Amino acid sequence: MWGADAVARLKDLARVIRSKNAGALLVTLDVMFADEATYRRVRDSGAINAADIARRYGLSHNQVSVIPYDVAQAIKITIPRAHPSGDPLDSDVYGAQQHAPLLTIEVP
Amino acid sequence: MPEGIVQPMPAEAQARLLAPRTDEVRLLACSGILGYGFTEAAFRRAIEMGMHAIGCDGGSMDPGPYYLGEGIPFVSRKAMKRDLALMLEGAITKQVPLLIGSAGGGGGTPHLAYTRAVLEEIAAERGYRFKLALIESELSKDYLKAKVRAGAVTPLGPIAEMTEQTVEESHRVVAMMGVEPFQQALRQGAQVVLAGRASDAAIYAALPTMQGYDPGLAWHLGKIIECAGAVVRPKIGQDCVIGRLRADHFLIEPGHPDKRCEKIRIAAHTLYENPSPYELVEPAGTLDTRACSYEQVDARTTMVAGSRMRHAARYTVKLEGVRKLGFRSMFMAGIRDPGLIGQIDEFTAGVRAKVAEETAAMGIAERDYRLVFRTYGRDAVMGTLEPERGELPHELGLMVECLARDEEQSRAVLAKARYCCLHNDFPGRLCISGNLAFPFSPSDISVGSAYAFSVWHVMELDDPLEPFPITMIDVGG
């Protein structure tokens, strides 16, 4: 058994971890929580931060935006796409499957 | 044969529409995309409540550059006709306007013509008469080049500055209109407005902002209902959503009697497809939701207040455009040989070299095509960012695509790639009769013309109507 103090993975804490285009040049990732306590735990832990997201997506930290959104108990992450949507080397036209690197974020 | 001609919206109904605000304006968003569908139960209930306008967004750039380039919708004609027929019936029988934005998906001239043809077919079948406004949004190269020369165009995100060469190389460019062209069409007496590329929220903000309702609330309401069923629970397909705008707040409820709009979904909706949940950039300014409150007023209805519109110094419209790259063909096959899976990168590199040699012999240079190998089951989705790239699967889906000048060249190169993938040798090869499991015959598929986004910019305008010419048509008249 692990208590609230144990380290947990984001995929076990979030209700939704989704990715989607925000236009043809950006991908936006929303991490949403079922209850306010879990949201606050993750938000206040700082586990979701620009430096770590940048490392996971091969970017520099100033390319990453992280915005907590209290009214929806959600944290929004926006990053540039490696290739514009539908470009010859793109692999995900809707940007809908770019969330996997977030699943293993560790939250104290 | 039509059963009888249905009279167009009378002048007094038109006058009521343009009058200043009353207590409440009720707007119906039928579906997230025209052709994605909605339930008839939800639609009929909403219509009987008394809507002031019926709307539907037709478009999105999410399906990628192809549909804008090719000038076709990404929904089927049958689905579009089904949705349009119900919406038109509602508008005609209740004598209220029907507003369609981003007609045909991309909102270009062929998309508009396509949607108009479906609309006129329904009208002819049912004997409807109405005034139709067509609002174009496709830009001519000369117009856009002049804007580039005037310094009125800037990138929207990480993309190169627009030059006259960008314009010249682009196949189709559309501008995304705000509320003003919709309002102009309504003032000219349109009952049905078929607009080219339009801001999704503008479809719904147009009428209330014309009547004097608060623009912050009107735009926020528009933004929430434009995706229709996205804010409705239970989420089973698309469905109608009703927005009721009042002086200092608005209400969102589902059309369907058994569904609900929950506060948290309504609040969460500004996250969707936006870089920030607090700021939504629209032509005349930025919608700021920082001071918004969301309240559940009953099991199915959420109330929103506090939305603000910060007016921009310059009126801007978004531009979207594509250039044509050539033609794409592809095949996909399975690999079940662990020896080959373990050295797939070396193998495809060998195939690439052999294909170059073979195609050169046919007079096709390597620079004239692009051959892409995608290894599904390993890293086709995430590429080098794939965290589990090192763990080899027992089965691999190999997709090979060829992008070349035209279909003939693309298929010629792909056929060589298919042969090489099937029969090339590799160290330790045991199954020497073929390396690929094709799921069906024929293996090679012509995908179609290939396009890429070349334009993702914003353009300043002095006149919000300038690039959006309106044509009035008497349908059935």
Brief write-up:
The complex is a heterodimer of chains A (108) and B (477). Chain A has 108 residues and is an alpha+beta fold. Chain A has helices spanning 10-13, 36-45, 50-56; strands at 8-9, 16-21, 26-32, 65-69, 74-80, 106-107.
**3D shape of chain B:** elongated
Radius of gyration of chain B: 26 Å
Strand-residue proportion of chain B? 25-35%
- Calculate Rg of chain A over CA atoms: 14 Å
Shape of chain A: elongated
Q: What share of residues of chain A is helical?
A: 10-25%
Distance between the termini of chain A: 15 Å
Number of helices of chain A: 3
What's the count of strands of chain A? Answer: 6
| Greatest contact between two chains | A-B, 39 and 42 residues
For the report, how would you describe the main beta sheet of chain B? 10 strands, mixed
Going across the major beta sheet of chain B, what is the strand order? 12-13-9-8-1-2-3-7-4-19
Helix-strand category of chain A: alpha+beta
Secondary structure: number of strands of chain B: 19
Average pLDDT taken over every residue of chain B: 94
Helix content of chain B: 25-40%
